[in-house]
């Protein structure tokens, strides 16, 4: 391996997690669930997720962990065991990230689908993955009509005529009987090399391919990505690019989670809304692509 493609471990950015090795995780890298537990131990009352559309919603790290545990418990009641594939498809939202982590917290595999896919594409991928549970935006319910699903849960609050149950309401009646130590002990047995997510490619060179990513892939990629930039816990990330894509998932979700930062979730590619989100959320890190920056400049 040449010096140009050999990753350089960034001790500056991942030093804080080393003190938790042996207590929260056993390998070289923690799983996403172990990492969430560790960050909650560091800054439980700090706001983790925030959005301003269609209303102002925010979750602290502790509130996120509590909801992740509740949703995870509901998932395990529906499909005992582990390594089942569970779909998530929707616009950027705090609920999207919470459900993503809850699926992995339950020991299952998350399949984040492009929110802009057509109905036949969604159905084909869901059937191919043999997924029986899906967390989706309410307006996507019709895509799943007639499919053999155990449950469909909404990432957004229902409007008039929409029938799916909002995920926060879906999980609020769960009674968590385990202690923090019980959760920590159960998660400690998880391995960084366990399959965490399957990301489907766009299919530009044929049928979409499912890319299998482990917890190690996600976590170490996030830390290695910080090799030439200093991320501080006080930083606020703006996630406006669709977080089902690998770049946005790692750079605007995994990286801020690794440092205990806040994430502001943007839902509309409208300059006026972007400016509002950035100002109100006190954003310090704006991740994008050239076409997005050009749009902002023109705005």
Any chance you could write out the topology, listing elements then pairs?
Blueprint: H1 11-18, H2 32-42, E1 47-51, E2 57-60, H3 61-78, E3 85-89, H4 94-105, E4 109-112, H5 119-129, E5 133-136, E6 151-154, H6 167-171, H7 180-188, E7 195-200, E8 210-214, H8 215-224, E9 236-239, H9 246-259, E10 262-265, H10 271-281, E11 285-286, H11 290-298
Parallel strand pairs: 1-10, 3-4, 3-5, 5-6, 9-10, 9-11
Antiparallel strand pairs: 1-2, 7-8
Summarize the helix and strand pattern as letters.
HHEEHEHEHEEHHEEHEHEHEH
Helix fraction, binned, reads: 25-40%
User: Any idea what the radius of gyration is?
Assistant: 19 Å
Largest sheet: 5 strands, mixed
Work out the number of β strands.
Answer: 11
> How would the global form be characterised?
globular
Distance between the termini: 45 Å
Strand order of the largest sheet: 2-1-10-9-11
Please give the count of helices. Answer: 11
Mean pLDDT: 93
Strand residues, percent? 15-25%
Main structural class: alpha/beta
Residue runs with pLDDT of under 50 for 5 or more positions: 1-9
Descriptive labels:
11 strands, five-stranded mixed β-sheet, 299 residues, alpha/beta, disordered N terminus
Report what the structure shows.
Helices cover 39% and strands 16% of the residues. The chain contains eleven helices and eleven strands. The strands form three sheets. It has a five-stranded mixed β-sheet, with helices on both faces. The radius of gyration is 19 Å and the shape is globular. The N terminus is likely disordered.
